[in-house]
Amino acid sequence: MTTVNEAQMKLFADLEIEMTADMYNKMTACCLQKCIPPKYKEAELSKGEAVCLDRCVAKYMEIHDRIGKKLTSLSQEDEAKVKQMQAHLQQTS
């Protein structure tokens, strides 16, 4: 029998895998659409296409990282505000 903590950790791990897969799929679609023309004659990537893909993926990952850090920061701020409000309510009761 698993504990609640183990169940939560598994849920978080599954959610992280799902979010990572979703991010990868969106990044792949976005960069493919941006960097690879719909009609191509060669099986190999051209140098221009490869450079475009490298830059697109780097930018996508950087933005994804920035958003993640900002959301974490906002979440921590909200948590601190909730704790302050709870402490204030306890003091007034």
Q: Could you please describe the fold and organization of this structure?
A:
It is a single chain. The chain is mostly helical. The mean pLDDT is 89. The protein has helices at 4-35, 47-92. The protein has one domain (4-36, 45-92): Mitochondrial import inner membrane translocase subunit tim13 like domains (Helix Hairpins, Orthogonal Bundle). The chain has 2 helices and no strands. Helix content is 84%, strand content 0%. It is elongated. The relative contact order is 0.07.
Describe how the helices and strands are arranged.
Elements: H1 4-35, H2 47-92
Helix pairs in contact: 1-2
Number of helices: 2
Give the CATH architecture.
Orthogonal Bundle
Given helix and strand content, the structural type is mainly alpha
Order of helices and strands, N to C? Answer: HH
- The portion of residues forming beta strands comes to under 5%
Rg (CA only): 22 Å
C-alpha termini separation: 40 Å
Q: Specify the helix fraction band.
A: over 70%
Poorly predicted runs: none
Coarse morphology: elongated
Largest sheet: none
Number of domains: 1
| CATH superfamily heading | Mitochondrial import inner membrane translocase subunit tim13 like domains
Q: Kindly provide the name of the CATH class.
A: Mainly Alpha
Mean pLDDT: 89
Strand runs, count = 0
CATH topology: Helix Hairpins
